[in-house]
Write a structure and sequence with these properties.
The chain is built from ten helices and eleven strands. It has helices at residues 3-11, 21-33, 37-42, 51-61, 67-71, 94-105, 122-130, 143-155, 214-225, 240-247, and strands at 73-76, 79-82, 111-116, 134-140, 162-166, 180-183, 188-189, 207-209, 230-234, 252-259, 265-272. Helix 1 crosses helix 2 (21-33), helix 2 (21-33) crosses helix 4 (51-61) and helix 6 packs parallel to helix 7. GO terms for molecular function: peptide chain release factor N(5)-glutamine methyltransferase activity.
């Protein structure tokens, strides 16, 4: 059977789990053969000899198992990152968080940044690549995430700029002389029903408590107590109003919210006033 015939045959099995079934079959074929898209376009009529492997991967994907976990890679900010089970899959919306951080840091020198919940390391790694003279401490409570983040940092040649530490939020952070805290924390309410594909991802990277914003609020508290000037976080689309109310507990110079690619509230930045209340 040719590659073209395989795409036609197996795309039918993915119609219930993706709006791009043909494309996903192509991705799996390229993953199996370790080839690129240009090669595929030139070889659609070539005999495909790995149908048994493809069939197994198609069956797995048809259960809503994430494509990123099958191929063990994901694109973020135009770069390719390694992905692993038990670690949150990078989302395109998080690129906006990185962009907002760069906007604040671009004119500063010798900056020190703390990332809470680094996951696969994408935020810290992109900041390390795009901001000169930056030092980053990236923490996570997940050993698998820390190991993956270290591999990604090495792959992108920024491991000398990032120190990875196992820590529950600020718990094991000794140096509080940071210019910014940045985080994509768990912010989903515990009783929220996840989409089927997201069910495969680690729950402790998704659920933020009974209401959902408990960890977010703890990060705000700890950042303020540590006298760190800037805080940037992702958040849930429905958390803007309660967060604005919570901000009243702190001396804040200014705060801003930003929307994601679908127009939903997705994150915020805070600049705290110097000193405590």
């Amino acid at each position: 059977m040719t590659i073209k015939d395989c795409i036609k045959k197996y795309s039918k099995q993915l119609r219930e789990v993706t709006h791009i079934p043909n494309k996903e079959v192509e991705i799996l074929i390229l993953h199996i053969l370790q080839k690129n898209v240009i090669w595929l376009h030139l070889n659609y009529n070539k005999e495909f000899l790995e149908e048994n492997i493809l069939e197994k991967l198609i069956k797995k994907r048809a259960t809503n198992y994430p494509m990123e976990y099958i191929t063990k890679k994901a694109s973020f900010y135009g770069e390719l990152f390694e992905v692993a089970e038990n670690v949150l899959i990078p989302r395109p919306e998080t690129e906006l968080l990185v962009e907002n951080a760069i906007e604040i840091l671009k004119d500063k020198s010798n900056t020190n940044v703390l990332e809470i919940g680094t996951g696969s390391g994408i935020i810290s790694i992109m900041l390390a690549k795009l901001v000169e003279n930056i030092k980053i401490v990236a923490v996570d409570i997940n050993d698998d995430a820390l190991a993956l983040a270290k591999r990604n940092a090495k792959k992108h040649q920024v491991e000398h700029k990032i120190e990875f530490i196992k820590s529950d939020l600020y718990e094991n952070i000794k140096n509080n002389k940071f210019d910014m805290t940045i985080s994509n924390p768990p912010y989903i309410a515990d009783d929220y029903k996840l989409p089927l594909n997201v069910e495969f991802e680690p729950r402790n990277a998704l659920f933020g408590g009974e209401i959902g914003d408990e960890i977010l609020k703890k990060i705000i508290d700890d950042t303020y107590k540590s006298k760190i000037p800037y805080l940037l976080c992702e958040m849930g689309y429905d958390q803007r109003k309660p967060l604005i109310s919570y901000f009243q507990n702190f001396e804040i110079e200014k705060y801003e919210f930003y929307k994601d690619y679908s127009g939903f509230d997705r994150g915020f930045s805070i600049k705290f006033k110097k000193g405590d209340k």
